[in-house]
Design brief:
By secondary structure, this protein is mostly beta strands. Helix content is about 5%, strand content about 45%.
Length: about 350
């Protein structure tokens, strides 16, 4: 199916960024858009609560980085030599152990999420592709000048599931999208290529009722866990889906582009970012090259009314294209990508 081809197109060649701290040099602005360099394919971005830090995940082997929102330096925190590790055996009893360091260039960091802690210590969830398909769990302590990043557990995905994005839910669990089943069920047909899965330590993995849909990609849960906001990439739609409610409630709203990740903002709105072009096939063609008719896009969505306001349409250029996530940082919108070595800093009007 075409939608399966879409997500196959996102499995790209890997490149590993050397471990270290990088100052954003050699990143001249493009008009009024500035850049932070030093992160290979920063596919997802998430703010760390009560801190000056943003976490960035490198999809094509770029690792996990911390980005300072004041001086724009970036520091790779995983994988690193001699990583901090402490397995939470109670919560992640089925975890076989830390990520195999032999993964090297096969390590791919995809979707990110943060569960806010009581003080300066928070939980980070990372969609991981490599020797195993999994959600890797870390603890970030922002008390030191450079926060510490400690691996504390993992949850291996079911055999049929290819993970994309993750969001914490109340009770210590999380929900994650699987846009493209590895082995579709016998007799399956139509446009529903994937679904959303819930996980908690007691019950393990379960499909969220009503979540079967066309390429579910980015995901965020409401603070009370009763609603999921899910980007449907091939369909150019965002879905609001009830969680833990009977009967299931589902609404969809159109956007003008293929929405990748979706992210809560400090003002209570959602930002969805993604790829624009004249057709889905053209978007696929332009994921890894600059096309004059491709755009990076960001829309602000009201979670209550589902009103959509497109706030950024940024033409593809040699410095930045293939947008995947948007995060408001001060008076800028930071935009991630699946290609290149930089985060775009787009000024708010």
């Amino acid at each position: 199916m075409k939608s399966r081809m879409v997500f196959a197109a996102l499995i790209l060649c890997s490149a590993v960024l050397p471990v270290g701290t990088f100052q954003s040099s050699g990143c001249e602005p493009h008009g009024n858009v500035k850049f932070i360099c030093g992160v290979v394919s920063p596919e997802d971005l998430v703010a760390v609560p009560r801190s000056d830090w943003v976490i960035a995940s490198g999809f094509t082997g770029g690792g996990v980085h911390l980005v300072n929102t004041r001086n724009y330096t970036t520091t790779q925190v995983f994988p690193v030599a001699n990583p901090r590790e402490r397995l939470d055996k109670k919560t992640y009893a089925s975890c076989p152990g830390p990520i195999d360091p032999a993964e090297k260039e096969k390590f791919s960091a995809h979707g990110l999420a943060v569960r806010q802690g009581q003080g300066r210590v928070h939980t980070v969830y990372l969609v991981h592709h490599g020797f195993r398909e999994s959600i890797e769990v870390f603890e970030i302590d922002t008390q030191p000048n450079l926060p510490t990043f400690t691996w504390v557990g993992c949850v291996v995905a079911p055999e049929t599931v290819g993970l994309n994005s993750v969001t914490p839910v109340p009770g210590g669990g999380f929900a994650a999208t699987s846009p493209n089943r590895r082995r579709p069920p016998a007799g399956s047909q139509g446009t529903n290529t994937g679904e959303v899965w819930d996980w908690n330590a007691k019950d393990g993995w379960k499909i969220v009722p009503g979540s079967e849909s066309q390429g579910p990609n980015g995901i965020e849960a409401s603070p009370d866990g009763k609603w999921l906001y899910i980007n449907l990439w091939p369909a150019k739609k965002v879905m609001r889906l009830s969680r833990g409610q009977t009967p299931v409630s589902k609404e969809v709203v159109d956007v003008s582009f293929q929405p990748d990740n979706i992210r809560w903002q400090a003002d209570g709105s959602l930002l969805a970012a993604g790829h624009g072009g004249p057709s889905t096939q053209r978007v696929i063609e332009c994921l890894r090259k600059v096309c004059p008719d491709a755009t990076s896009n960001v829309a602000r969505i009201d979670p209550q009314t589902l009103k959509v306001e497109q706030i950024i349409t940024y033409p593809a250029n040699e410095r930045f294209f293939s947008s995947t996530v948007a995060l408001q940082v001060g008076k800028e919108i930071w935009i991630g990508t699946i290609t290149g070595d930089r985060i775009a800093r787009y000024p708010l009007r």
